[in-house]
Amino acid sequence: MAHLTVEVVYRGIFQKNLAARITRGIVLSSRKAGRWGISFGRYGDSPQRNGVPAKDFAIVADTKEELEQHMARYEPKELHVTICVDDTLFKGVESWAWYGLQPINRLLLPDGHLLVTSTRSQSELLRDAHKKDSPYNLWILRGKASFSGLWVFKEDHTEARLLGALAKIAPHFMDIDAVSAAIREAEWGSELKVTSARKAYERIEGRRIAITEGNDEVPFSFEMPKWWEMREGLTIPAIPVGKPVEGGKGYRPERNPYFKKFSTRTMRPVVNFDTCVKCTLCWIQCPDSCFDVTPDGLYDANMESCCGCGVCEAVCPVKDCITMVNESAFDDNKSQWEMWRQDKDAYQVWAKQKIQDKVGTVRSHGFRYRGQYEEELAEGELEVGGMPVTEGIPGENAEAKGVRPKRHIHEATSIVTGVPEAPGA
Amino acid sequence: MAVATKPGGAAIVEEQEMLISGSEAVAEALTLADIDVVTAYPIRPYDTVMQAIAKKIANGKLVAEYIVAEGEHSQFEIVKHASTVGARVFCGSSGVGWMYAMEAITVTPALRVPMVALVGNRALDDPGAFGVEHNDALSVRDLGWMLCWIDTSQEALDTTLIAYRVAEDRRIFLPVAISADGAFLTHSQAITKVPSAELVHRFLPPYNRGDLLLHPDNPITVAPQVNEDWVIEIRRQNDEAIRRAYGVIEEAYADFRRVFGRGPENPWFEEYMMDDAEIVLMGMGTLSLPVKVAIRNLRQQGKKVGLIRLRWFRPFPYEQLARALRNAKAIGVIDRDYSFGSPFGSGVVATEVRATLYNAQHRPPLIGFICGLGGREVTLEDVNKTVDICFAAANAGRAERATYWLGVRE
């Protein structure tokens, strides 16, 4: 008698379809192995926003009664397996205001399994993942975070590969033959996907993580107010207006102290303050008012407020002035402008290194032009999740900046069938 | 006519008598309360109030924003917003008009808006009809609205003033709906004492929304979207507010008696010939009139019958009622409403009274009567019949049937 509880931590909207397919696949695979299961999403996450961390779950058990016993709560609080489909979530999960930052491994039972799709090394990932008071196993499935949009799904086999990996981790519930049968018969009917799952089963690598390993930081947390401490009439105090940064100059808006948004972004802007023409566009267009106006009239993206949408990069008229870079390239949320002010040359070296690092790792938020999807899939190995995306978000100033996204559709035989086109394509 | 002397020595008229309907009495009270914003959309019988207020404004007796909305939903939304910026507001409707505004009506207590509304009780469509039934106002009984029923023009005027005092109390901040029986009260004129503005001023302080005021100097967000981590705490706050209303309502009636020198000792319900009553009839609104007359006739025959006419339905005076009913040998509740499929097929009030007595030491037989629907007259014969059935139950120690429909052609 046994049961298996799995969560999939994913990026709202971009990975919504992916996560649902994984949890469905777990239940269907375990059914092929004679088990019972249920697949569901965290209801509170249903109004997902772009990139906000969200969760889906699968519970499978040997008997129906055992399944009921472990389903009888709103959402699982103890997990055998956490599947993380974007490694920037190793910095933590903060899906709503007042939640604080939840370490990615927080709900894992002792000796549980954390399975992540990543191109990074274990030591790099452990720089982000918080320390845990019990040992667990970290499994890496080589591959980029698979991002698509609300109405589209990227057929890069990520879900099949994760199911294959899970067959290695939890063979009692879903051996690789059951996974193959589910992929072949129950859901997708693709022999190619079966091959992907079997390859992942063979190649998955993992090791035990000791309690001494991981990020030392204590994640920020909040006490939720009692009913009699809350303001009446569904009123909440407004965020106060901001103040000058220093010497009566510049401007920094006040920000919601209960929603840090650190874990919302998968990319962050790196600003070249030396080429900034102070046009104000990033400051005006940022939907989260994340830019502080510095005393010298520059615009400094404040990481307590940035959700990584990339609008600033898209509207900036200067070539390479604002560049979106993979969030995992950063270890802190410090002010870039302060760094630049202290040592401009050192800042340029730092920024250049970060921007170079984006090759092959920048996430593509949805699809922005007709044919992008086919390009991404056809140009690279499935193992690394398709072609490198180096161009960031083209935006309205793309041509002025010399960024020319390819707009042709590949002739190469596509492994893709029946893919819907991106809306607005 | 009550006459008092100002410190200066000049005599002032503190109250004067007027011949006015229940609706006009409400308009008099609104003028005295100096309301700021009123919204209107015509539906009988509530439209009599909007006409009376319009006349007050046209005659220069009242200065207020009078907004005719394009429907009841907007009507209630507009005053809700006006109240959050500190305006004293009035609104109202009848029957399906009230139901059409339901979404706005639902959010009003949640946002702690002390709106006062008049429900000219009217049967819900279909069939299209305009006579009285109480189901319109009763449809909001679980949402945090304070609900009361009035019986006379005088009570209409007095209760409107009391309603503002209670609703706008910072401990409460919940809306009050005053129910007036269509036709019987909204359309019939009676001699009514109308107090002076000075007196009313002593009773009713200005509306102060305090820290909940929506104003640039007090920047707040109202009504954010929340998840399951917040909703039950918010509901608990509303629960606390309406619990506090028991004390605040008693305070307000005591103060009303102090300032105006009249008004009921018991805010919750009128007790008529209850001292030695063996049979207690209960009901809400204007059906008290035939019941009282029938009781007087029955008393001449030596039958000890009394009446409890409920004023406040929310908050429901369950403790006070259980005390008042402790000597009853049988209780007959006359409902001018229906609750299809309810326990025992009873009306809403009978079900509430039955629940009130469940934990009581003394639980006499309780019989529900559905009567007077759609504005049909509750006749003396109907009342006599209820009394006969109640006596039979009292003698038998149990009711033969839990619910009767009276005055139905069969």
Short description, anyone?
Chain A has 425 residues and is an alpha/beta fold.
Task: Explain what you see.
The complex is a heterodimer of chains A (425) and B (410). Chain A is α/β, with parallel strands linked by helices. In chain A, the strands form 3 sheets. Chain A has a 7-stranded mixed sheet, with helices on both faces. A two-stranded antiparallel ribbon of chain A has the order 9-12. In chain A, a hairpin with a 5-residue loop joins β10 and β11. With 410 residues, chain B is α/β, with parallel strands linked by helices. Chain B folds into 2 domains: 258 residues, 3-Layer(aba) Sandwich (Rossmann fold); 137 residues, 3-Layer(aba) Sandwich (Rossmann fold). Chain B is built from 13 helices and 18 strands. In chain B, α1 crosses α2 and α8 crosses α9. Chain B is globular, with a radius of gyration of 21 Å. Classes of the chains: A alpha/beta (425), B alpha/beta (410). The interface between A and B is medium-sized, with 21 and 25 residues.
In the predicted model, the low-confidence regions of chain A spanning at least 5 consecutive residues are: 407-425
CATH class of the largest domain in chain B: Alpha Beta
Strand line-up across the major sheet of chain B: 5-4-6-7-9-8-15
* Proportion in β-strands of chain B: 15-25%
Secondary structure category of chain A: alpha/beta
- CATH homologous superfamily placement of the domain at 3-209 in chain A: Pyruvate-ferredoxin oxidoreductase, PFOR, domain III
- Any guess at the CATH architecture of the largest domain in chain B? 3-Layer(aba) Sandwich
Average pLDDT metric of chain A: 86
Helix content of chain B: 25-40%
CATH topology of the domain at 3-209 in chain A: Pyruvate-ferredoxin Oxidoreductase, domain 3
What is the CATH architecture descriptor of the domain at 3-209 in chain A?
A: 3-Layer(aba) Sandwich
